[in-house]
Amino acid sequence: MQDAENVAVPEAAEQRPEPEQQAAEEEPERPAGPRVQEAAAAASVLVPEEKGGKVAAAVTVAKSGLEPEALVKTPAEEKASGEPTSVESPPSSSSSPGEPQPEKILEPKAESLAAKEEKREEKEKAEDGGGKEEEEEKEEAGGEKKDQGKEGEAEPKRLENGNEEDEISFSDPEGFVDDISEEELLGDILKDRPQEADGIDSVIVVDNVPQVGPDRLEKLKNVIHKIFSKFGKITNDYYPEEDGKTKGYIFLEYVSPAHALDAVKNADGYKLDKQHTFRVNLFTDFDKYMTISDEWDIPEKQPFKDLGNLRYWLEEAECRDQYSVIFESGDRTSIFWNDVKDPVSIEERARWTETYVRWSPKGTYLATFHQRGIALWGGEKFKQIQRFSHQGVQLIDFSPCERYLVTFSPLMDTQDDPQAIIIWDILTGQKKRGFHCESSAHWPIFKWSHDGKFFARMTMDTLSIYETPSMGLLDKKSLKIPGIKDFSWSPGGNIIAFWVPEDKDIPARVTLMQLPTRQEIRVRNLFNVVDCKLHWQKNGDYLCVKVDRTPKGTQGVVTNFEIFRMREKQVPVDVVEMKESIIAFAWEPNGSKFAVLHGEAPRISVSFYHVKNNGKIELIKMFDKQQANTIFWSPQGQFVVLAGLRSMNGALAFVDTSDCTMMNIAEHYMASDVEWDPTGRYVVTSVSWWSHKVDNAYWLWTFQGRLLQKNNKDRFCQLLWRPRPPTLLSQDQIKQIKKDLKRYSKIFEQKDRLSQSKASKELVERRRTMMEDFRKYRKMAQELYMEQKNERLELRGGVDTDELDSNVDDWEEETIEFFVTEEIIPLGNQE
Amino acid sequence: MFWGTRKKQIVNVWYSVNGERLGTYTGHTGAVWCVDADWDTKHVLTGSADNSCRLWDCETGKQLALLKTNSAVRTCGFDFGGNIIMFSTDKQMGYQCFVSFFDLRDPSQIDSNEPYMKIPCNADAKITSAVWGPLGECIIAGHENGELNQYSAKSGEVMVNVKEHSRQINDIQTSRDMTMFVTASKDNTAKLFDSTTLEHQKTFRTERPVNSAALSPIYDHVVLGGGQEAMDVTTTSTRIGKFEARFFHIAFEEEFGRVKGHFGPINSVAFHPDGKSYSSGGEDGYVRIHYFDPQYFEFEFEA
Fold first, then answer.
1. Residue A668: exposed, middle, or buried by beta-carbon count in 10 A (0-12, 13-18, 19+)?
2. Fold (CATH) for A203-291
3. Quick one: pLDDT at residue A358?
4. Which of A113, A486, A520, A774 is the most exposed, fewest CB within 10 Å of its CB?
């Protein structure tokens, strides 16, 4: 029988029978969905038929010495009281497999019991036998390995006393214990060693196959063969029939279980035609589903882990913010309270992270990166809250709702187990789904909708939208969008914007699509497009599409801003034409203004535009001769920092856009980063060791551009403000607060004065004690000095040199004339 | 009067009043690393990368003695009485770092080039700076790894060892009365120690390697000179090289003034013995002498 062959074929080694079956048994809490039931029904039918043969095979392999009949008989005897057909079926199937048993499908329940019994027994047998043999094998291999181990041991020994002995001794020292497992020594080779497998693993069941009469059976077989022989050589097939027609499900057997697995992976869900979508399962899977008990067990209640108040930092009386700082080239990470005077350290740890850190979008968690995965920290003491094991993780992304974490690792992605990208549930730490990924060039690969309900990914001509918590494709299918170049979610609603470049006669277009309905709410056609960039305003009120075009008959690129007003009916679009090349564009976060840097260095200008309610877009102000390449809006809007980072030497301009005044122009030489605090009160500029090796520091400024602190940190790398969750205050409450601002500011001013006078008092006090201590020390030193006076006099032949003029009498006056030119240099920083 | 060494082969003497050159001591064939004069300025001692240490007559510039060594002479100095000289040699060309002691009163030592004592120093961290302690009883040496050792000048044993700096100690200067000294280190700090106990007293922080530090003879002030390392200078703008002499209050550890002027790192700073001026020598090839203006003498911290 071909089953015996199976065992001998080396490819079969990839699937070890025991773990597979154990895994199947250990899966009781799997929900018994309709598909499972269906499968169980199907299994009940096929078990006696195909199994008979298989059992025999398994037994012969296992050398259990039992006659196949004996095995098969057992269930039959047990089932003697049951249906007569089912009693007869096992022997009949063993003698002539391939004969249909039409009655059985009608009594699946009784049958399934029988099948279960039979299978379990058989499995036990197989396991026993297999286990024994493997043990033997192990022993053998172990013996061999032991010898190798001795060799390895002997080597260094020889080196030690090589001078005395030339002969190499391979024998172990007495009492030598071999503690190296064979997996450790030759795991790579052992992996490929032939392993036994019973043929069941190579069998698949295909459902939803068209039901045909004998006239078309041959044709069906051809079709099936064509589809399924792609995954490997089919050694056996069986088409059960009923009333002259096939029953709509078939069995196929491959040469090796690997092929069967391949078929299940790739042919499941195959659409033959409109009515027939194949469902492909491993034959052994039916086992798995059948062991599920009919009773539903209430899942055990997990003990509640009290993590404390994860948002404690928001309750701080002074409303200070926190930030994380990585320094000493990444060896140390600190968390600070931001304070006007000096940062207050909360936590400092060595080697907290191996590369960098990230805050979750609402600030609840701090993520650290390690070779083995990601760790999340939080709460008052920054305890570890969760771990996600992902070898070689490089990039992460949080869902906006902080429920899910996406991690990316370039290592370890295998064909059949996608784990380049893994989506995790943050609360439970469970892996939700893995994805393949070739390149991380455009991180994040998965973009989240603002509420974390959907996430989407773009591949060639396709936009795949997934939904949470199932992590499955929305409506089970991706969107085919030929040529799609870029997409982006609205931060204010479940709307996706994407654009497609020109294709022959079809113009380029920007599409806005509502989800999950997939309704296109706006399509904008564009001509002669080179490139588009999508910029959403933070609330999703506006979308700006920056369009680079090469109009016909002209040379060079012209840029337009197409402004979509999302909150109005039919989404009207207005166009702003720009005459110069664009360096940067940024929306005001909570407003309707945007800033544009344009021109060519060194003639760079910044322009501020305002989108009015009637749709008119007005240029408010333009400043020319700017040294800037990046725009940083305050998270609250209104204020903006224009920064000339890196190559522009760290020039900074602080602008108030309500009346468009330059509040301050400053410089943080070689600054590489600008970070607004989440409240928009402070800005930090920093020179990161990652981009520049000297003067690594971060400076704290007020939003008006007044320098408050210069914090030099050795090999400072990164500062990140801890984000705050969105405010709980209603619009009216905010309005009220703004109205009463005067009243509040009085209180705050008083507080500031108090703390300032306290600080200066403290400083003076500190200086005083320092001075006193120092005087005390000096007095002691002086006393010692005076004691040694005689010794000094002795050493210098009785000349007192303690004071410059201590021996004026000996001086000889000598007059020398000099020509002196004097240059007076005012002292810098003198207080 | 002061001496200037410029990592060149000649030592110059200048008038500190107007910068007129008084004379030179010529003879060395390698960069001169160190110069010292005895207390009554009769003799001058120089150490050079030409593997020699030479003794000169101060006034005439005549070479009085030549002591050949196996490797470059990094530091040298007269003891308090001017009778014993000490110099340290680099770990170089397979030779260890040594501190050698000669007694000038015994000419045979110089003639035979046999020091009365030679202290080998630990192999991995050579001496980068050294001065005599009070009364000539010991020397205080700063090492490449930031360690400070006090060696007895009689027995050669290590009397005290401390490690307060994390990187090379570039310079050590004592106070006028020699009861305390200030170190300048590559770890961006200068520190004040007690000469006898080597107890750490104060720390002065900057954001650049400190090449030299000096104590004011009249006020509680310290001046620090340093800057970007010479090899990194080209990669940064001169604006941020921070080649400034920086003044700190000795007790408060607070900076109160800076003097610009050099366009290369400052290698050496020194106060005039009267405390009314100071000089700084820079990698840029200039030695600058600055007189303090009246505000300096009036300035006081609020305390």
1. buried
2. Alpha-Beta Plaits (3.30.70)
3. 92
4. A520
| A693-711 as b/e: b if 16+ CB within 10 A | ebbbbbbbbbbebeebbeb
SS3 annotation, A526-583: ECCEEEEEEEECCCCCEEEEEEEECCCCCCCCEEEEEEEECCCCCCCEEEEEECCCEE
Of B20, B188, B259, the CB nearest to A825: B259
CB contact at 8 A, A626 and A618: no
Residue type, A830: Q
Phi/psi at B210 (5° precision): -100, 125
- Chain B nearest-CA residue for A799: B40
Interchain CB distance below 8 Å, A819 and B18: yes
Name all domains of chain B by residue range, CATH numbers in brackets: 1-120 (2.130.10.10), 129-302 (2.130.10.10)
Q: Using a CB–CB cutoff of 8 Å, tell me whether B40 touches chain A.
A: yes
As a whole number of angstroms, the distance between CA A286 and CA A831 comes to 86
**In the numeric block, which tokens belong to residue A259?**
């092929």
Q: Are A338 and A700 in contact (CB under 8 A)?
A: yes
Q: Is-contact B258 B277, C-beta < 8 A?
A: no
Q: A694, B177: Cβ pair inside 8 Å?
A: no
Q: Is B251 within 8 Å of A785 when comparing Cβ atoms?
A: no
CA A431 to each of CA A135, A182, A389, A406: distance values in angstroms, whole numbers, following the listed order: 35, 31, 9, 10
| Residue A151: both structure tokens together | 């060799």
Instruction: Determine, for residues B80 and A767 on separate chains, whether the beta-carbon distance falls below 8 Å.
Output: no
| CB spacing of B80 vs A795 below 8 angstroms | yes
Q: What is the Cα–Cα distance from B187 to A444, expressed in whole angstroms?
A: 40
Q: Is the pTM of this model over 0.95?
A: no
Q: Does B95 touch chain A (CB under 8 A)?
A: no
Segment A815-820 mean pLDDT: 64
**Under an 8 A CB cutoff, do B251 and A774 touch?**
yes
Of all residues in chain B, the percent with pLDDT exceeding 90 is 7
Q: How confident is the model at residue A152 (pLDDT cuts 50, 70, 90)?
A: very low
Q: Which of A778, A780, A801, A822 to mutate to test the interface with B (most CBs of B within 10 A)?
A: A778
Ramachandran angles phi, psi of A764, nearest 5°:
-60, -40
Question: So what's the ipTM on this one?
Answer: 0.77
- Please report residues of B whose CB lies closer than 8 A to that of A670: 240
Tokens of A58: 């398994």
How many helices and strands, by DSSP H and E, does chain B display? 3, 26
Nearest chain A residue to B236 by CA: give it. A694
Q: For residue range A422-443, what is the model confidence (pLDDT) as tens digits? A: 899 998 888 888 888 776 668 8
Q: List, as ranges, residues 127-146 from B with C-beta within 8 Å of A.
A: 134-136
What are the tens digits of pLDDT across the range A632-673?
A: 999 988 899 999 988 888 889 999 998 888 899 988 888 899
State yes or no: cis peptide before A194, omega within 30 of 0: no
Average pLDDT, chain A: 76
Rounded CA-CA distance B226/B242 in Å is 8
* Nearest CA distance, B136 vs chain A (angstrom): 9
Distance (Å) from the alpha carbon of A665 to chain B's nearest alpha carbon:
18
Choose among B80, B239, B251: nearest Cβ to A792: B80
What whole-number distance in Å separates Cα of residue B147 and Cα of residue B142? 6
Per the DSSP assignment, residues forming a β-bridge with B217 are none
- B201 vs A777: CB contact, 8 Å cut-off? yes
Residue of A nearest to B300 (CA): A831
Distance in Å, alpha carbon of A594 to nearest chain B alpha carbon? 34
Cis status of the peptide bond prior to A516, with omega within 30 of 0:
yes
Q: Which range among A27-41, A523-537, A684-698, B260-274 shows the weakest confidence by mean pLDDT?
A: A27-41
Which pLDDT tens digit goes with each residue over A179-228? 777 777 777 777 777 766 667 778 888 888 888 888 888 888 888 888 88
pLDDT of residue A686: 92
